[in-house]
Amino acid sequence: MSFVLVGDIGGTHARLAVLDLADGGFAAPPATFPCSGYPDFETLLAAYLTSRPTAPRPTQVAVAVAGPVNEGLARFTNLPWRVSEASLRQAGFARAVVVNDFEALALAAPGMAPGDKVAIGPTVSPSRPGTVAVLGPGTGLGAAAYCVDARGSAVLVTEGGHVGFSPSDEVELEVWRILARRFGRVSLERVLSGPGLVNLHAALNEIAGCAQESGSPAEIIAAAQSGDASASATVRRFCSILGTAAGDFALAYGAVGGVLLAGGIAPRMLDPLAAGGFRAAFERKGRLSGYVSAISTEVVTHPFLALLGAAESLRRQA
């Protein structure tokens, strides 16, 4: 068996597993660690390997990271860590690959089973072959595309989460003004992420003249689920802004093969996303509304898809 170590390192959690490259199965359930509990990735990796004293040590490693990767070196956007292919080889791995986490998600997208995702909005039938856009809010906002044409396929790796936030109405314009006073430039990630949900809640409360504390992303989502009016309004607005952004990415990438919503937040908002605001905003593209209305939108529910994509990056570089 060709066992490899795979990792998915986000801004909040790190997931590690040993996977059989031959059949794509995990040798053991993936382990999840809080990034805040470790000073660097090397310490976390050593702790994981120490926890498996009787298992054979993989000689290959692939790590998906939440940040840009330049010549095998990753500096995280929302975490004070660095990971490099060179340092992993120095740690004893014969072959090491470091990729962006949304590159990994896009690599895994073609192999997804129907049970790995949930449709939001109409099911486009028959599904059209073509480029698939992948984006999603978590600690940050990631974006990539699995590009397909008559000659083959490739992954388009981007930092699309840092494009500018474009307001769609007067409320969102006022949100933009509030955040611009705080941050200067207002990127999509300032709204569509865990911290972005907090920013949005605070801005909407300010617009409403409400002095309520924003709370954490989990607290806002929980409050919305419990019927809190302020939190519910924030979640609805978040879904609408996400729909607008997803439609923009569909246009930018020509993603006729569909748009996948990944990350840690969308699976926790399935009901609000399905309520209609997301899809209405997705399709609200003026003269191009007909183009995007024929594009499917789905939420990724597979918890370890980035690990499978990391393994795929090793296969592609074999």
Q: Can you give a write-up of this model?
A:
By secondary structure, the chain is an alpha/beta fold. The protein has two domains: 3-104 and 304-316, Nucleotidyltransferase, domain 5, CATH 3.30.420.40; 113-301, Hexokinase, domain 1 (3-Layer(aba) Sandwich). It contains eleven helices and 14 strands. It has helices at 41-50, 85-90, 101-108, 170-183, 194-208, 217-225, 229-253, 270-274, 277-283, 289-293, 305-316, and strands at residues 3-9, 13-20, 31-34, 60-65, 69-70, 73-75, 82-84, 95-100, 117-119, 132-137, 141-149, 152-157, 258-261, 297-300. The strands form three sheets. It has a six-stranded mixed beta sheet, sandwiched between helices. Strands 3-2-1-4-8 form a five-stranded mixed beta sheet, with helices on both faces. The chain has a three-stranded antiparallel beta sheet with strand order 5-6-7. A hairpin with a 3-residue loop joins strand 1 (3-9) and strand 2 (13-20). The longest helix has 25 residues, at 229-253. The two termini are 16 Å apart. The model has no long low-confidence stretch (mean pLDDT 92).
Biggest sheet: strand arrangement:
9-14-13-10-11-12
Count of structural domains: 2
Largest sheet: 6 strands, mixed
Name of the CATH architecture of the largest domain: 3-Layer(aba) Sandwich
CATH topology name of the largest domain, in short, is: Hexokinase, domain 1
- Name the overall outline: globular
Helical content (DSSP H or I, runs of 4+)? 25-40%
* Number of strand segments: 14
Order of helices and strands: EEEHEEEEHEHEEEEHHHHEHHHEH
Kindly report the average pLDDT value. Answer: 92
Task: Give the CATH class of the largest domain.
Answer: Alpha Beta
**Structural class per helix/strand content?**
alpha/beta
